[in-house]
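the two lines:
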Amino acid sequence: MAEVRLEGVSKRFGRIQAIWRLTFEVEDGQFAVILGPTGAGKTTTLRCVAGLERPDEGHIYFDGRCVDGLSPAERDVAFVFQSFALYPRLTVYENIASPLKARGMGRDEIERRVRWAAEVLRISHLLDRMPDQLSGGEMQRVALGRAIVREPNVFLLDEPLSNLDAKLREGMRTELKKLQTDLGATFLYATPDHAEALSMGDKIIVINEGRIHQIGTPQEIYDRPADTFVAYFVGSPGMNLLPCRIISEGDRLFADIGPGAFRVELPPEVKEGLEDATTLGIRAEEVEVSLREERGWLRGRISLVETLGGYNIVEVDLGGIAVKARTDFSFSPPPGAEVWVRFRRDKIRLFDREGRAIPSPAACKAPSNA
Amino acid sequence: MAEVKVVGLWKRFGDVEAVKGITFEVKEGEFAVMLGPSGCGKTTTLRCIAGLERPDEGDILFNGRRVNELRPSQRNIAFVFQFYALYPHLTVWDNIAFPLKAEKLPKEEIRRRVEEVLEMLDLKGLERRKPKELSAGQKQRVALGRAMVRRPEVFLLDEPLSNLDAKLRERMRGELKKLQRKLGATTIYVTHDQIEAMSMADKIIVMNEGKIQQIGTPHEVYHNPANLFVANFIGSPGMNFIRCRYDREGGRLRDESGGIEIPLSEIAREKLGSISTDEVIIGVRPEAIEFHPGPSPRAIEAGVYLVEPLGSVNVVNLEVGGEVIKAVAEPGFSPSVDEKVWISFKEVSLFDGRGGDSIGAMGGEELWRR
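prediction for all of em together
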């Protein structure tokens, strides 16, 4: 397995700048996820790494060696697509064996590898079937089998679960992560689904409109988003982002939300660069809601309750500003009900006019192991 | 607004029985969601209500009046497929006025009705804009406005959000629910997405293979599913199932590997008394699994298989007996792989292992003999 590094890679198609100066690395054996909405440049990035597109500028390295001049075959990467792209007239066995045959590998070695891959993916009982006799999940396993038998330098996976239904996707998520860990394989995985990225990635590269917004571990991306784009894109619901202005009264600091709707006191240790803050961010699970009046809490009204089974998302109207909170499933007041709300102070995030996070001292303490 | 009843509805297409004798009602002003996988008959049912398909058997009643013989245009319904089907070259005003112009209503009447809809949907000031100058939320409101302007008695919505990306869908869910409440509109909404159903519905009608599996509030279908299909289809991650043998004489449940053995309480044995098989399935929601620091009475030993962080929670995959089950834990709880943990169940559902019907839901404590 290889370590992969991109340095300042850009690619333009006509007038569209698909990706712009991407620099990141994927360590040997790491599960890296490129996360971004449709059109962010995810597929273009993978295609550049595979050698299917030639970057306009920048360089790509495998294990420190520049591969810019190498063909896709010479790079020896395995590409797994959203459409499973199996050969319809070949059996499962033949499909998995096809890349090895193309390489002229001996029959016994092919057999050994196909059987191993089938066992790892738990499809040994399907080897004689034709693709049209398989379910979506089974087809995706065969596509994976065809990739793992090659023992490539790196696996590039382009939304491999997008065509599966929700239930299956959930199960495959766990299996893929387990497979990657067991193989010790280097994965570069593109997806628009933040749950896939958070649950599987060792490292997440968040991109939008061809540019990197943040690189970090799932926890860093979720807890310490670098900007408002990441804050809203990652998580369901996305982080509450409220317009604000900072005011100080003696030693105390407040965010005036709206401005003019309500005030939130900020932790005293936050000071640096604060005057630039124009947006306050808070995750739904860091907003506490009570039906009883609580001293010092904000008064609001329930505008919406979304029951999601294991928990509820309630929307509270606080002086004309809508704030979402995650509550227990049993908390289900009627619309219009009066409630009291508090933000967990140490979980408040602040962003400047450009949407960039204003670092707080707590952020500096968080260990970085991306 | 109307109340809708579907009584003993059958619909066949050639040899395929799409809908097999279903009966349900939707009260005036209610938001009902028909939920099921593709091919379950939900869209066919909706099309029968709209008058786009003719039932082979059974009746459709609006306010108690049989409408089987009425053409779609005579039923006074609004059928919305997806929210983006606006006329791109027409302004907001003209898009909304379109159905009334087609009916050749007097100019003054059209003006009055369009104004009323614009007001109600908060679209004032946007009348002269073209669809491409609108945000996604505004487009949705225009599409809804076009449906409302005819003053339909029932709104029929067929997977209206399925073409939107995940973030937008999340926002539209809440918007749509609030609008429906404001309008007091009788709404029948078809989807395969359990999150949409759970978050928006007053009543969920779960369908599979042309039959109704359960009718209930989101809380009921989630916490007291009628059978294994409903239990499995609703929730993410889905309910865990532990296949057991019921030792009637000993009053115990044992899983197949022998890893779990539960001496049953009086209540549990009473419930199980009615079934004719000794195959029993224990269903446990991932968030109903509780972790204990060490061995304790009524706690089951489990091995950590994989931890999937999702930001607001961690999904902990556990090996119990021979099976892997999922537990939802706090984001701070992240045991290492192969670590031993002890778990108990806060809430369980019991199912007949052969037929799949629910035997009942109960607190985890109530399951065990004291």
